[in-house]
Amino acid sequence: GLYLSTANSPRRAPPSLFSPAANGQHPMDTSHHAGGRAAMELDNDQSINRAPAMDMATTNFFSAIHSHFVTKCLYQETPKSSPTAACNIFLASDTRALGLSVLAMLVEQNGRKRLSLLQPVPAVDNSLSDVRRMELVAMPVECVDAQPVQSTPLVLAIKKCGGLPETHRLATDILILQSEGRLVLYRANTQITTLSYSAFANRLPPALSLTNPVGPRVTLNGPSHVGHRISIQLALPCPFAEQSLCAIQSSLETLDGDLDQVALLFRVDCIRVLQQLTETEPSVGRLPFKALAAVVMAIIRWDLVGEMIHGASTQGKSLASVEDAWASLQSSDFGIDHEIFPVASQSVKGEDPWFLSAYAQSNPQLLNFLMQKGSREPLTPLLFDPLHLLFEESKLSNVSFPSDLETLLSHICNISPDTKTRHEFLLYYESHCLSQTVVTGGDMQEDTQYTRPFTTFVKPPSIFGWVDDLLKRRTSSGYFESHTAKEINPACRHIRFVKAVLPLLFEKGTPASVVINELIEEGFLEQKEISEIFVPGIAFPLLSLLYKLTNEASQEVFVGTGPLSPEGFDLIGRNDLSLNLGQNDVGSGKAIMPPVPSNTMPLEAATDMDSEGNPSGAGSFADEEKDGLVPIEVTSSMLFKDNRIHEAARLLRSSRPAFLRVPRVVEISDHEYEQLKQKKLSLIVRRSLALPVGRGMMTIGGLKPLAAESLPIPDLSLKGRVPPTNGSLTLDGAECPPEIKVWPEFHNGVAAGLRLPEKADLDDRNNPINRTWILYNRPPRTEPTNNNEESSTTNNSKNHAHGGFLLALGLRGHLTALEMTDIYEYLTQGTISLTVGVLLGMAANKRGTCDMSISKMLCLHIPSLIPQHFSAIDVASAVQASAVTGVGLLYQRSSHRMMTEFLLNEIGKRPDSDTSAFDREAYTLSCGIALGMVNLCIAEKAGVDRAAGISDLRVEERLRRYIAGGQSNEEEARRVRESNDRFSIPASSNGVENEKCSVIFETNMINTDITAPAATLALGLMYMKSGNHTIASAVSIPQTHFTLEFVRPDYLGLRVVARSLILWDEVEPTQEWIDTQIPNVIHSAYRSMRTIAKKTMEGRTPAKMRGVDYDRRAVRQIYANIVAGACFSIGLHFAGTGDERAKKVLFDCVVQMHKLREGSDAVSVVSKPEFPILETCLGLIALSLGMVMAGTGDLDALRLFKTLRWRHDKEIVYGTHMVFGVAIGLLFLGGGTMTLGREPEDIAALIAAFFPRFPTDSVDNQYHLQALRHLYALAAKKSDVCAIDVDTGERVFVPIETISEGALLAPTKKQVPFLLLNSDVPIRSIRVVSDEFYPMTFRLKKGTNHFFVKRRGPPEPRSLAGPWTSDNDMAKILSQLEYLSLHPVDKPFFTQLISQKQAKDRYGIILVFLALMNGLRSLEPTSSDSIDLMWSLRLVRSFTENDVVEETGGSRYLPIESRILPLLLERAFQKLIPMKGNGGQHLISILYG
Fold it and tell me: What span, in angstroms and rounded, lies between the C-alpha atoms of 1385 and 1081?
């Protein structure tokens, strides 16, 4: 049977996909389908070797294989009898070579092979349009073997003008091996020629078979299995000759009927003549075109003579050779009367300029074929017309064509008896070929009886004349006006291009994108190709249009919605818009990466001190400490022009020895002085250990990892540099126990890991952060021994840092690359820091997904969720707090009922064992934050009503009780017991009682010291931005001294925060709003205390006031905490906005608190609360200011924070140093490239990270888990906007205007790079308004933070040594004038001209004028190049004078053209005046029309 199919993909399916069916049926058998149609989609290949012993449900190292190869049945033959298997079957081209539409089958029967050709034809049944039936093209041919070969070029393959030169596409012919080793080449059923290998007859026996056909090559197999590789190529080796042959062949293919193989025979004759000339005339130049001309002249003479002697004695005779035809022509009456063939007669007698003798000796086939057919179709127009069009084609190209074409055309006109038409064409050629002698035919007279024309043209078509009429808006009549581009010979690709594109420039309403698309379809991808291919007269209009689009492409249309494709933007020289267009089309938010800059280092760098105390000097950019601060200083130098980024890096650096200055009193001993230095160093080291959190903020997202390199984690320095020798002093081990570095090392690991980019910013296919890389960064496990105690301590430090590294991976979205087996191995190590990092990291990585596997892992570390018979498992309090927080992150905004009920019970849970009494406050706070995250914004209107699923839990009521306190009722206790029974499996043994806590005894009263913070924040997060005043009343501030006594002062600040979250829209960044949060009684009492103190300090007696009994200590504490809470609320509300009002009010509050801390006057003493409370409030307000100005690097805030952190005495605890470091880190978040988000999820993460209870030392986790300080990374958003020079790949400064959404605000002028801050009116787009860069408008989209710009100037700066930006660059440009051979007289003019600003982006047009100027220098009156030059000048003049923009009423061009063109015309006129008598007058007439 026979099965013919088509595929919709060029890819070949692997053999394994075609496996036999189970029932024995062949997979290609489609007989069971109705109508013979079949469609089969291949399944994925399951034979790929995968890693053994792996769970394929969870592990997949290979991407899915998608099927793209689909077969469809086109024809199916069901033989009536037992079929014979075909020896060979292949597809070949039809006679016209329009496609592979002929099926060749070689079948052997009875020891004889026959080749059958079948061609599909439409079926009679129109309902099945896809089904074809096969018909025999011709009777089967007996042969020895047959193979397909690609030897003949396709005429239709010549389509494009621009781009890289394409190889000719070849038709698939059939090479047949006949008996006795004879080779015959067929095109379908048409014989092309016979092939001979007689030259190898002595050593090449007759072939027995053909094998291995590839392109034009095939193997001839002889006896003894000896094969010889041969190549069959029917193409002329000269490009111009091949183009001429294709033009004639395309013209001859218009013949129908029995003459359809004339074109193929013409090509074969050309190849035969070329082979003959190669043997007999090897010294003659341009042999391919000589061979073509010989065949043309032979056919034309036969055609003309045959017409004149029609009916004579030679009629019906076969002219065996051209000599016979030529002799008959000479002896005819016409030849005797006119004597028009002196040259031809000489050729026969000895001189043979057209090598007709070689043509006769080459055994031509075409003349014999024509004589046998007896056809008298006129062939001369089919030869002359395409050659004349090629002559016109040569005028458009900068490539010089051989003069043989002009001579051949003139000779054809000479032998034509049509005197009138011949004379007109001869004058046309003579006017163009001034340097050649054209035979005009003397006194020839027209033969009125002769009606056979030599051309179909009424008059000589002139492409320059048609273009000139088009540019002048004049109507013309002629060949080019009456024919469309597709009707012109396909070999004349330049004429077809000009005919298709140039009229579009002047058609009203034609979009410019249509012209650009036409240029792209023709293969033009760069502007330089236009000027390189076309003469100046044709290139100038196109370059002018491209220049206009270069400046106007994006002024009205936003990038991404414009009419041009990326290739179109590249063509107009705006590849910046092309990249921006591709970037905005990325739907996933993954922006296209900019080019690699050639030099990203700035010219200057801040001078700093190395590890030995020596100045590193400017230009030292080595990151020796591996903390990422030096790279941030380099990359952020464009955002901050001063040294603030270097100063911030110095303040946050903890890997270098600290500067230690201890004044020495004379009377103390050396031992006492060393003790003083140790005490001083311990205080400074306390600050250094608190800096990694802030350093992580500054360096977040600043590292591009390499798969072959591990992540560097810097060391925490415990040393100091003592002046004046800068000697190193190490902290004594007694002052620094091992546990003091546990959490600082953890923070250090997090800071190092946060340098990694987010997973969304990396390509999934080339992501270096995979499982292998993570495990490669894992420190080696060593067992502690007595002999290797120091090594064990070092390894423990690395484990703590690795735990922080894992948390950072989760925060950046990379931790899910690990397998569950890896997670299990981490969790079984027993290190608290590793466990905390894994739990929090996995939960943050899977935030909001409710992933069950992660949920089980978290629940196993929460004792309340562990079955009772496993309750004896000891789980550290830090691990419990991290697991509960992880539950909140995992189930964020899901309102999961079970988790909601569990977390609600945990807030009010009493300690049931001694272990649960430690760090109970941090665990309960984590439960409250997790509860708020699970039910985040539960009152939002959009989507499903999430509150309905937990309404019966009475969450709000119970949270109120946890906030206000009181006696717990019996119903609540019963609910807690029932929930605990559901969450925990009862013990298997009876009579087992739960363990009791012997450390803390709580009555049935709710302990608000434990529950109030958690419940307050949970209520605020649940009803965030709801505006519900009823819920807000639950966290209202008491208004009397009596009721205030029942609330701790620090919890009042939390109530202000929760109330601000609920009443989000009522928060205002003013001092008045802060004052409204303070109860009137507290405000008046505080003001009264300050007034009395002030009058006392001034020596005045204060006025007697009514006796008011209030606690002055409580007033001070309440006032400070409420102000701090209000400032924190402003910080959350205006996070990442850079709001100036918020900045001012927070700045004033920080200054006020700082004055209270440092002040010692009576007013300050009476106003300040206890020092720890004051430090907490001061740090919280500084944090709030840092949140508002996040990423801005505000200089005023930096100076203030620098002042605050200076103090490092015994009263300043570890948490205070951490707060001020965090404030500085927020100020330079991401090196100034990131800011904080304001979405509900971001606010929840900020509250968890910046909870206003800071650790007293580095091991303190009692009130707040230190690991949660890094959750700010979930709210950090990449928000910098930078411009990248598309040519150099470097970031550049560009003036822009920002356009807001809805155009509510006027455009704001800025300069990129800048930080895009949060705003209620977001910026919609950016418009470049620079004279140095091209105009463009870029629409901002999520995930895109950079755009590309292009500097005005030459498209290739390397050729001109850089863009035109300075006087030095200008000198380099002017030096190119010498290269262009500009005349010294004209150099000053061009020097002044190209110095104009407008000349920067007119580079291509200026080069056109310079080329014209160069041509005028070598102007000669007798050269055809001079005529082409005059025509180019004329076309440029016509276009410039007639191209007017109607909508603007003025010229679209700058004065640069109007200044250059008169100079060129003047120079041309000066050159032509002395040449008037020697052809100059003709050139002047061409120039001025």
Answer: 92
Residue 214: phi and psi, rounded to 5, are -140, 110
Asked if 378 contacts 304 with a C-beta cutoff of 8 angstroms, the reply is no
**3 state DSSP class of 476:** coil
**197-227 per-residue burial string, b: 16 or more CB within 10 A, e: under 16:** eeeeeeebeebeebeebeebebbbbeeeeee
Nearest to 583 by CA among 1355, 1340, 1311: 1340
pTM surpassing 0.85?
A: no
Q: What is the CA radius of gyration of the chain?
A: 45
What sign does the dihedral 1085-1090-1091-1097 (CA atoms) show?
A: positive
Q: pLDDT value at position 1384?
A: 56
Question: Omega into 724 within 30° of 0, i.e. cis?
Answer: yes
Residue 1200 belongs to what H/E stretch?
helix 1195-1205
| Chain centroid offset of residue 683 CA | 50
CA distances 403 to 413, 432, 434, Å, are 16, 12, 12
| CA–CA separation, 755 and 760 (whole Å) | 15
Q: List pLDDT tens digits, range 1299-1358.
A: 887 656 678 888 888 888 888 888 888 888 888 888 888 888 776 678 888 888 654 433
Instruction: Supply the angle between the helices 877-890 and 897-907 in degrees, to the nearest 10.
Output: 140
Number of helical (H) and strand (E) elements in the chain, helices listed first: 54, 29
Q: Return mean pLDDT, the chain.
A: 77
Classify 1201 as helix, strand or coil: helix
Cα 1473 to Cα 474: distance, rounded to the nearest angstrom: 29
Residue 895 Rama label (left phi>0; alpha psi -120 to 50; beta):
left
* 246 CB-contact burial (10 Å; exposed 0-12 / middle 13-18 / buried 19+): buried
Residue at 698: amino acid letter:
M
Strands 1291-1292 and 1323-1328: unpaired
d(CA 940, CA 177): 83
Q: Which long-range contacts (CB under 8 A, 24 or more apart) does 1386-1390 make?
A: 1386/1413, 1386/1463, 1386/1467, 1389/1463
Which strand ranges, in their side-by-side order, compose the sheet holding 1294-1300?
Answer: 1308-1312, 1294-1300, 1323-1328, 1337-1339
Query: Amino acid letter at 216?
Result: P
Q: Are 1188 and 1135 in contact (CB under 8 A)?
A: yes
- What SS3 state is found at 221? strand
* Other C-beta atoms lying within 10 Å of the C-beta of residue 991: 5
Only one residue has tokens 């629940």, namely: 859
Per residue in 961-1012, pLDDT tens?
Answer: 999 988 776 666 666 666 655 555 444 334 344 456 767 777 778 889 999 9
Span 786-813, pLDDT tens digits: 444 555 556 677 889 999 999 999 999 9
Name which of 2, 187, 193, 195 is nearest 106 in CA terms: 2
Instruction: Tell me the β-bridge partners of 721.
Output: 659, 728
Residue of 169, 74, 182, 167 lying closest to 129 (CA atoms): 74
Give the DSSP per-residue string, 1259-1294.
T--SSS-GGGGGGGGGTEEE-EEEEEETTT--EE-E
Question: What does the pLDDT look like over 577-586, one tens digit per residue?
Answer: 878 776 654 4
From the centroid of its chain, how far is CA 1089? Answer: 65
**SS3 sequence, 1079-1100?**
CHHHHHHHHHHHHHHHHHHCCC
Over residues 256-298, the pLDDT tens digits come to: 766 778 888 999 999 988 888 888 777 666 788 888 888 988 8
Structure tokens at 839: 């739990």
- What is the number of alpha carbons within 13 Å of residue 1195 lying toward its C-beta? 6
Cα within 13 Å of Cα(176), Cβ side: 26
